Amino acid sequence: MAKPLGKLHEEKVFKDPVHRYIHVRDELIWRLIGTREFQRLRRIRQLGTTYLTFHGAEHSRFSHSLGVYEITRRIIDIFQEKQTWDPEQRLLVLSAALLHDVGHGPFSHSFEKVFGVDHEEFSRDIILGDTEVNSVLLQMGEDFPKQVAEVIAKTHPDKLIVSLISSQIDADRMDYLLRDAYFTGVSYGNFDIERILRVMRPTEDGVVIKSSGMHAVEDYIMSRYQMYWQVYFHPVTRSAEVILSKILHRAKELYETGYTFKRELSHFKTLFEGSVSLEDYISLDEGVIHYYFQGWMDEEDPILSDLCIRFIDRKLFKYTEMVSFTDGHLLSAYFQEAGINPKYYLVVDSSSDLPYDFYRPGEKEERLPINLLKPNGEIRELSRESDVVEAISGKRRTDHKLYFPMDLIEGIKDESLKTKIKEILHK
Amino acid sequence: MFEDHLKVVTLIQEAGEVIGRKKLQKMVYIAKKLNFPFQEKYQFHFYGPYSEELTLKIEELCNMGYIHEVKEKVSGYSQYRYAVNEEGQKLLSTYGAEIELLGDCVRSMNEQSSRFLELVSTIMYFDKFDADEIKEKVQTVKAKQKYTEEEMDEAFAYISNLKNRVQ
């Protein structure tokens, strides 16, 4: 085996609008950033279709991944002085932080739903398979890639290092809230990250926060709450996502029924056939997807062509609040009668968020709480100390919308049918 | 447009009544792994595979008045029971479609304990590994549950049994 990678001759820095600088001192990290699998993240937007609502949201998963790495690096610098921190874990955590999203594909959410692929499985495959990332990680030891994969999959036995990357207050969330707020231009995603980092303390079961830092954490929780409803679940972004997903469904259905596409389907073929290899997956990025969508605008199939025009030219679906099951089925029948295929043009989309939840003693819930460390050494769960957090704890907020093409409805010649459809939509 | 919601209602109907959110989560996950047509995305959480999407769907179905949720206190902690109510029955008879072979598997799973289904679903989550590696993973990620060798063998046998039922 080659000699384990050590320190760089001199520190490298990346200029970053959120953290000012990303500092790289380890050869391992520098080499990982240079791999083709990591560089591919430059070509995948962090927020998928959000750029169609917030035009600034063009930032990539590459910059987010560097940001998560940088936050983790800063946390570890603070932890190095603490007895509960094992310095040998440093490169493991930093590698996992950097690579936590390496398996994401273009428009992951829709791709995963339509083609049954899973970005977490691809993250594991990229880390453990025959890739540049794997060959760099292997230089740290035969078991090292497996350990990195386990931290990302949350199945590593060391709860502390898992919690740095996946918990209710972790480096991933802290970076994406700040970065997404910066690039979308909204003002509500900000919180005092420097303060939070300074009050984080390592314990065997995960990170705790010194109680003097509680107000900074309150601000972080509220930022998260605001960002989900103002940015991530924006109804216009969801409209674009609905259309994107229907394009993929339609193209897959056409392929399965023997339709002849004008353009060679080299990138999509294995996805349609459910036999996508790691190399096929790595070759996908948003540029490739846009290339196909632009080509499909000229396809003979009117549904595929229409949906692609809507996506590329931003002629999105309109939306209304969710209708009942009965009205939904009535609408489907009316759409069918009007010659509008409800399978592609009548779509329910639901969003839901739980801004913070706590682990109630004795209850079998899934989330680990944020714990505060009191000056006397006592550990107290955040919502028991903070009235602000208590007010939103465990409260799920949901939003259901029905998406439809208003322009096609307006074009229905049968006035009575059009009226019946509009009556349901405007109830 | 509500096909995925209907599948969840169908599963609960086949079970009769499901006691515990965790149990319901694991039943849908195991059914999905047996190739029944459930679309909910699962991730590995502290109690094994968990789907936020399923949590959302169940809440929607309760809000829409098709699923009856009862919260009760059992030896100090809260427990939830789920059953399809009268409106849900009507919904299934109007729009529902039978999912072949699902009922038999679901009723069998419902007879198992939540702890056992947590083990079964965790084993299925790691199905890319060989049996010894899976056992090692279970002992690592589920150390607090202290599953015995016998329980794990029983879980492997149970998975084979379920797979035979759907063949």
UniProtKB/TrEMBL annotation, chain A:
It comes from the Bacteria. SUPFAM superfamilies: HD-domain/PDEase-like. It holds the Pfam family HD_assoc_2. PROSITE patterns: HD. Residues 61-177 form the HD domain. GO terms for molecular function: dGTPase activity. GO terms for biological process: dGTP catabolic process. This is HD domain-containing protein. It comes from Fictibacillus arsenicus.
From TrEMBL, chain B:
It comes from Fictibacillus arsenicus. This is YwgA family protein.
